[in-house]
Specification:
Elements (H helix, E strand, L loop, with lengths): L2 E5 L2 E5 L4 E3 H8 L6 E5 L2 E3 L4 E3 L3 E6 L7
Parallel strand pairs: 1-7
Antiparallel strand pairs: 1-2, 3-6, 4-5, 4-7
Length: about 70
């Protein structure tokens, strides 16, 4: 089994740990928690939330824009 992170329709697998924080998982992918939200089963996860073997989480890019 593995932890699967889905970013832009691509699956990324983390297989070497049974538990890892969201922040550590994002760092492994080279993305920042300031620029991405992480959802597991529709629930927004914080940086210190633990991902476990068998979890699948969706990464969603934070987009801002508009006029100042």
């Amino acid at each position: 089994m593995a932890i699967i992170l889905i970013l832009r329709k691509q699956e990324h697998r983390i297989e070497d740990k049974k538990k890892i924080t969201v922040a550590a998982a994002l760092a492994r992918l080279g993305v920042s928690s300031e620029t991405h939200l992480v959802l597991r089963d529709g629930e927004l996860l914080t940086d210190d939330a633990l991902l476990r073997d068998g979890d699948t989480a969706q990464l969603i890019a934070v987009i801002s824009g508009g006029r100042a």
